[in-house]
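worker-03 picked up job from queue 'complexes'. Input manifest follows; two sequence lines, order preserved.
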Amino acid sequence: MKFKVHRDQFVQGVQHVAKSISQRTTIPILTGMKLEASAEGVTLTGSDSDISIEYFIPKEDEEHQYVEVFEEGSIVLQAKYFTEIVKKLPKETVEISVQDQFATTVMSGSAVFNLNGLDPEEYPRLPQVEEDKTFQIPKDLLKNLIRQTVFATSNAETRPILTGVHWQLNDEQLTCSATDSHRLAMRKAKINTNSSGLSFSNVVIPGKSLSELSKVLNDSDELVDVVVSENQILFKADHFLFFSRLLEGNYPATENMIPTEAKTSVILQSKRFLSAIERSMLLSEDNKNNVVNLKTIGNGMLEITSVTPEVGKATEEVTSEEMSGEDLRISFNGKNLIDALKVVDSEEVKIDFTGAMSPFVLKPTDHDHSLHLFSPVRTY
Amino acid sequence: MDRQRKGRIIFHVDMNSFYASVEAAHDPSLRGKPLAIAGSIEERRGIVVTASYEARAQGVNPPMPLWEAKKSCPDLVVRKPDFPKYRQASENMFQLLYEYTPLVEPVSIDEGYMDVTHPVDDRPPLEIAKHIQDRLLKELALPSSIGVAPNKFLAKMASDMKKPLGITVLRKRSVPDVLWPLDVIEMHGVGEKTAEKLKRQGITTIGELAKSDPIQLKSSFGVAGVRMHERAYGEDHRQVDPDAISEFKSIGNSTTLPRDTKNEAVVRKVLMNLSDSVSRRMRRKEVYGGNIQLTIRYKDRKTITRSRKLDHPISSSQDIYEEVWALFQQYWDEKPIRLLGVTAQDIVEKGHAHQQLDLFQYADTLKREKLSNTVDHIRNKFGEGALLKGAQMSEDSSDLLRDEEKRGTSLEKDFLREGFLNEKQDNED
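worker-03 finished. Artifact:
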């Protein structure tokens, strides 16, 4: 194998693929990155067996030639070293060639690295995904779906299924939900399935996979193909394929957890409410006591307090834009509200409470495609 | 501050052979006889918890196994412990102390500190001490020893010097004469492990401790090293705190099994009973634990403790049991078990415990809380055996944990004796 490639294109590809490579893997060859040169261009592959990324650098497009292939072939190189080397190469082009016994030379300008490669024949094949359930989604929308749900996934392994985001497609509507059993984030999006009547449910994508996917997506409205299979999901963009394993098991039913009536409703300015909660939690030790108390004090005012024993108490009054229903006194995890308020794309939010010991719902007022549900904190 | 420190007068009141004395106070026929209080008369776990001075004179040194005590003192009279009786006696005794000053700090069921710098009446300290000792003996028939000193440490050291019925004054200026010749192990707050470590560093007596380098002590013992060094000079700035007893850090119970066992059904039942008893004590004190610890001592005396941080503080027997059982299943290495213990740590008081309700089962949580309160209520009314889980039914010593009279309580840490409490596992008191 021997090829010459534009450094910038190559660095981008290598860095994307490196995100899927872990040094802590049980399959030694997966610590490496696979490079494959063909007549069409160069393909880079990485995998940690949960996610796999395949990145393609075409030989040329309308304007540029990126790759010059002298000899087709493939090699696997230790990602740890290779990634660092490629980032720091001095010249515009990189030449990579493989000699006997997988001995590989990486050259750029006068810098030369001789690396011991691994046998590409031993590199596992990427999952085969049947392409019968496919839809398209713009990259920027996909990024938003991820940003507005992944934070609510659980990171405890006690209920592994909750470490993922649940996707469900029905009547051209994609519903993404995530919960750690204390809060739930739900985001809906219209999907054009070209009236194929495509539908699925119980597709649970590991939160970590989605975070990594989000990092390799740029902010554009270009479409990504999404292919859903029995145990894998594949995202196909112009230059890369992103595979993720799906979580096994049944995602708990969440639709019926969302209260439909409210005993107390308030409309608040998102930013102002967010900073008030952030301020009230200044006294709480890291993650130890995130309890924030909220009560209505009349005239459309709310009082937010937080007490940390031995440290002190924070109190702040917040003016609502609108308030209706019964008086209320409730405690909740302030950190969870902050997480949600940070991703709400709306000037104002409406919160519907159904009592001090029942879950409450936060929704943007600008649109109805997202919803956050929170459980209260019981003090005893 | 300074003036107050200089002038402080602290008493340490220590009851002599408390359990034995209480028994003798209730049953005059026991007076003057060698008497021992033992955890259990028949079973292997029979350990002498307290012995009267008459028994001690014949070689009974608690804590020692009952069979050994009987060997050295054949006419030993043995009684089972009756904790409600002791608690009552303890309450009477502290009540009497409160008559002299509100600054009384109970340390355990049978000892406490008093700050008599400003006593209710203006008699000289020694006269007050004598008065207290005489009244304890006359009104309650309980002998005591009292240490009189400018701080808690010296008062405690002083009360130990003459037993029974001693009144000992220990001034700071007599520290070099009185304390320095003593072995470091005699120093209050120095346990076996610390003494050993000190000896390895060539420090055998309190005097040598006083003369050693505080910086070096700090590097090997931390703050405790600095404290030891101060104490060796008779310094102790701790106040007498009437509320100190409530600042416990953990609540625990343990039990030695009648026979070493590998039988999970037996273990399950013992852990259930221990959980029940820890739960009861927590509820009585209106506290919750944010961390549950399991202690396993194996046949070879190797002891392990494993704990788990909880996502919300608990106090119900069921919750505690579920945690220890999970710990047990995770950490038991299938060797024969001699002793099991359950301890709740990270104690928070009622009103300061928080639980973030689960979206999927918040209704269940509230329901279960109600049930647990009801069970507690029924047991309070009809006794501990009124409601039991199936697995808890059958005879063995862990049943005693449900028995008010025989169970160790908050203050009876000596009843639990044995090595694993030596390590200053702050067993609540």
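worker-03 released lock.
The CA atoms of residues 266 and 323 of chain A lie 4 Å apart.
The helical segments of chain A are 7-18, 79-87, 139-147, 207-216, 270-280, 334-343.
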